[in-house]
Amino acid sequence: MSEKIDAIVTASSPVPTSIKLEAGARTARGSLILTFAATVDGELLTMTGDEGLFSLEISGGRLDGFTKTKDQVRHIDAEDTLGLDDGTLHTLGITVDDFGTHVFVDGYEAFTTSLDVWTEQLEVEDISIDPAGIFDIRKFTIYNSPLTSHAQVAEAVAPEPFVEFAAAELSQRDARRCGGLTRGALRARIRARGVGQGGTIIAAQGSNGRLELELTAGGIQYTVFEGVSQEKPIASVFGAGHFDDGGWHDVILTSGRGALVLYVDGYQIGQAPGAAFFDQIGDISRVTVGMNLEGSRLFGEAQTAAIYSTVLSDHQVKRLAGVAPLETQTLFDTGLKGSASYRIPSLLTLESGVVLAGADQRVSIANDSPNDINFVLRRSLDGGKTFEDVQTLITYPGEGRLGASVIDSVLVQDKQTGRVLVLIDHFPGGIGQPNCAVGTGYTVDGLQELHDRAGNHYVRQADGRVETQDGESTDFEVDQEGNVTENGKPRGNIYLAYGVDKNESLFTARTSYLQMIYSDDDGATWSDPIDITSQVKADWMRFFGTSPGNGIQLANGRILIPVYYNHEEGITFSCAVIYTDDGGKTWHLGESPNDNRELFGEKIHSRNLTDDRGSLHESALVEGSDGSVHVYMRNQHPSGRVAHSVSQDHGETWGPVDYVEQLTEIFSQPNCIRITLDPVTAQKRGVDSAIVFANASRMLPFRGCGVLRLSFDDGKTWPHNKVFNPRHYVYQCMAQLPDGDIALLWERETQGLFLTRLPIAWLTESRSTIS
């Protein structure tokens, strides 16, 4: 029987600015609800105790703050909660449970941290609410136990419409009132009578133009026409999809903050820059619903419709549509273990059902290499519900920009043996992809090359002895961690940057390396790093590294890892795969799709590529149903689409490169996996599996709009597309959990890595065909 959730403190308008919380009312877990309206920035809520505090403010119209104990701090940077200063009622919800602190805005999760302290741990005594008296506080409640995400939705106030439709046309008075709206939203709940049928949802006539929201056979269209002829559109947005299926759909158009955005059933389906609303078309004389201005009716029904005077947020749209909330937990967030940042997700479900999640731990600064970066991992033994504490698997000496690093992990399992492999880039101190040197750092015999600051060159033998290039013995020795001794005395570390250690002597080549670790017990323990650079990197390459996320094992047992590299000029890039047929003992580099490729009438090759429009960067691999291998590639091509190629020989060579029209590309890492379908879906579709593709699909101008897409025909078509997060979203990695759900490990770039569980039905219910 579930624990009864009671209110410890509750207050309605007028809510006092200061509340005392007695010791007996403090709890280790709980929730908070605050309903407010704001028009300016300011402090919203602060809970203060002897052991720390929890504070939130409105800054720039969004939510910001922190939770702080004596030894830990988490920044609550809810950067996507725009419009909290629009003067309308909003609901703030906080829940602290065993997974961390969850911040809800208007019913839906807006931010999450791993720090799980509440009023008991903080020893909260004083709660300050709107101390400056600048907000309209309507309700404040603290609960003794965590509210569920569904309860948070139920507690959230829905936005109030400016005007509602009670007939097919607004009254003249209400129509005139709409003329003053410079921004806002249109909403209608509609259905078509059948496939191919549609028509006007909402239309308005003004003295200087008209606007129309329409259902078409191919999607939803909003257009604003201005001028006497009213034929030239000044702004429009289109969301492709099959919404003429006879079912009910909640359609919302928002105009404001520089953009037009379309939503169907609570999820974004289209976005275009350039806002335009009622004020753009002059004095309003008519506003219709379910028919156009000439009286031609929608081939279907508009059940309800309304106009809003504010730009509804993504969370408010979901609240109106009654969207079921998704469960998210933080696996690696800024501040965890004292680190400045975590980035670059890798994720894998093992044959045993154990789930592994990996990340870059960027210790002192958030940058890519050169930086002090460790590889860390968390394991789940219950199918992704909970995760063990962080394991630090690979670490190198040095700090900040002079620290040695590992970066961009790839996880894969050899299903024949159960061995789990991690491949990851390695850089010595002060070196990263932009400034690494040409070469492998190894001799033709596979021995590590070393040098000193005077320009003398050495070779490290397998047992740690150091010889000159000519094979003469020296007094130097190097241990497994790279520590150098000379006649037993410390002489620095070969991986450090120049000038860091006063006893420095020998250094590795200042280039990029590829390393591997492995586990034979489902990730509980791991081997030491094994450098495989000399097996796969050519001596003309400057950078050579993984495309982070997941590798794949083909039906024939071959393991493929996506990689990319550049050559001496260091500017253009080409992707490829490295492969092993013996479980990781030996590795081989395949050709690149850029090798002997025709680009704009010219033959190019990865060895001498100079046209950046042909660059192929990070990539993702999936095996086709016919045994072919598909690669989807980040690129700089002017098409603005994800590049794609197919291999018929298990990744050794590639066919022509094409650009997938439906997969938009903003120069950000893609990910794709093959999933097993549930029996009902499999029978309906006539296939047992499908491909899920995910990437950040829009520049906003930051990288964002994370979209998942589903294909039943090896990527020929993508009939189901859904926007997971319409704003900040960068890298991601997916895995199918033992219960069939999709686990999405994703990043907001600066705040950390978050795991969200997505039922396959969440994706298949989407009618959107492009986003």
TrEMBL record:
Enzyme class, one word? hydrolase
Q: Name one GO molecular function term.
A: exo-alpha-sialidase activity
Q: Which domain of life is it from?
A: Bacteria
InterPro entries named among the record's database cross-references: ConA-like_dom_sf (IPR013320), Sialidase (IPR011040), Sialidase_fam (IPR026856), Sialidase_sf (IPR036278), Trans_sialidase_dom3 (IPR023364)
- Pfam families noted in UniProt: BNR_2, Laminin_G_3
State the family it belongs to: Belongs to the glycosyl hydrolase 33 family.
**Listed name of the protein:** exo-alpha-sialidase
**Which species expresses this protein natively?**
Corynebacterium aquilae DSM 44791
